[in-house]
Amino acid sequence: IVSQTVEVIMKLSGAISFLMLASASAFAPASTSTRSNTALSMSGVARNPNFTKLAGGYLFPEIGRRRNAYLAENPEMADRIISLGIGDTTQPIPEHILKGLVDSAAKLGTKDGYSGYGDGNGNADLRAKIADKLYGGLIKDSEVFVSDGAKCDIMRVQQVFGPGVTTAVQDPSYPVYVDTSVMMGQTGDIDTETSQYENIVYMPCTAENDFFPDIDNMPRADIVYFCSPNNPTGAAATKEQLEKLVKVCKERGSILVFDAAYAPFIRTEGVPKSIFEIDGAREVAIECNSFSKYAGFTGVRLGWTVVPDELTFADGTLVRDDFNRVMSTAFNGASNIVQGGGLACLDDEGLAEIDTLITYYLENAQLLKDAMESIGYDVYGGNDAPYVFVKLPEGKSSWDTFSEMLEKAQVVTIPGAGFGPGGEGYLRLSAFASRDTIIEACARLKVAMAV
Q: Are 228 and 258 in contact (CB under 8 A)?
């Protein structure tokens, strides 16, 4: 009996070993005795023609590429590089907000605290808290769609509208609005003379018009993208300006997509932090927002979009229903852990920590602004926004100045032209850096950019 048992065990062991080997090989690439003679084999699938219209790479990776190319040629400068480029927060997540993240993560390791899929539109408590704490009851919690960030939501909004619409953007503006319009097939080709795409209405926002477009004299567009406080100019629209914008959109039957990602930086009394502070906005506007700049969540990823019940398409169907369909089809909801951090952000302690962070970055912006003004530049933004927009001398190219500052001062900036043709002749400086870094950057720029 013993010998039979041993024999069975040996056979069973051999079978298991065989199955394990077979399983492992199932996930391993099949070996071939010959290698293809072609360097690159092509599929039979045609490329999406909309992507061929895109002019170069997306702005911020292009900045990174140029920085890396400079360092490849000048490796000894690696320790001297200062970034005032991409708007990436640098200060640690504050204690109370961090505890919200940590506690939410710890719950997943307990039987009672574990959670799987949640509500695809966001934790009910978080949606209610956003509506209450950030909007003061101007919106309903059912109109809040929690997501992984405002940038992602811009593309989701584009998917709702589809290819058959005309878009209007501030010029200059955050490049996501234009690039996603191109990807969706809403545009024609780019005009190499003007650097503008066909079928996009570019609304000039310059120092001459106080960075607010002459909306009455702009052609009608189906969808109007508007960011306040603005990236890159730092301009925050007044209540009167936003009332004008809502009025024109309502008269023309346009939908306004309002990007409020920098709202917490507004400190000027009476300047709206939400488009829903404006009468009539609920019939014309969608608002996108994010915790990225509120609480240092650029790498954590948490945002939201508000789509009011009153907003409809021409046939009377609710825009929120279609946005909900996009969210439920292509998104499974923000991380449970991250949403726990979002709830902590909106506690009284969290809001106080956010206020401290915002003050820190605004002080940085003031240092940058003072430095540039001290050497004779006209400077905009920096009061209600973390960006300082520097007017360059007449005829000075923004991309050339970017390269010059990188080579002379080892300071990474953003050329205004990267935000559209209206940004040519300007340089954007970001206040999202440590205080010591900002002070050092100011000292270097005052030498390198001296007029």
A: yes
Q: Rounded to whole angstroms, how far apart are CA atoms 274 and 139?
A: 11
pLDDT, one tens digit per residue, over 198-222 is 999 999 999 999 999 999 999 999 9
Side chain identity at 161, as an amino acid letter? F
Given a cut of 70, whether residue 19 has pLDDT beyond it is no
Q: What is the pLDDT of residues 86-137, one digit of tens each?
A: 888 989 999 999 999 999 999 999 999 999 998 989 999 999 999 999 999 9
Q: How far apart are CA 9 and CA 75, in angstroms?
A: 62
Which H or E run includes 381? Answer: strand 379-381
pTM for this prediction? 0.89
Q: Looking at the predicted structure, is the pLDDT value of residue 443 above 50?
A: yes
d(CA 364, CA 106): 35
Q: CA 346 to CA 382: how far, in whole Å?
A: 25
Residue with tokens 């605004």: 362
Burial track 263-283 (b if 16+ CB lie within 10 A, e otherwise) = bbbbeeeebbbbbbebeebbe
Q: What is the DSSP letter of 343?
A: H
Q: In sequence order, which residues have a C-beta less than 8 Å from that of residue 313 and are 6 or more positions away? A: 319, 322
Cα dihedral sign for 261, 118, 157, 194?
positive
Structure token digits, residue 314 = 């021409």
What is the reported pLDDT for 406? 94
Report the first-to-last Cα separation within the chain, whole angstroms: 98
Nearest of 429, 419, 428 to residue 195 by alpha carbon: 419
Could you give the residue ranges of the DSSP H alpha helices within 319-347?
Answer: 319-330, 336-345
Angle at Cα 331 formed by Cα 328 and Cα 46, nearest 5°?
105
- CA 264 to CA 242: how far, in whole Å? 17
Burial of 373 (0-12, 13-18, 19+ CB in 10 A): middle
> Which is nearest to 223 in space by CA: 291, 315, 314?
314
Q: What's the pLDDT tens digit per position in 312-367?
A: 999 999 999 999 999 999 999 999 999 999 999 999 999 999 999 999 999 999 99
Q: For residue 254, which of 210, 299, 203 has the smallest C-alpha distance?
A: 203
Query: Using omega within 30 degrees of 0 as the cis cutoff, is the peptide bond preceding 172 cis?
Result: yes
304 sits in which H/E element: strand 303-306
Name the DSSP class of 216.
G
Residue type, 84: L
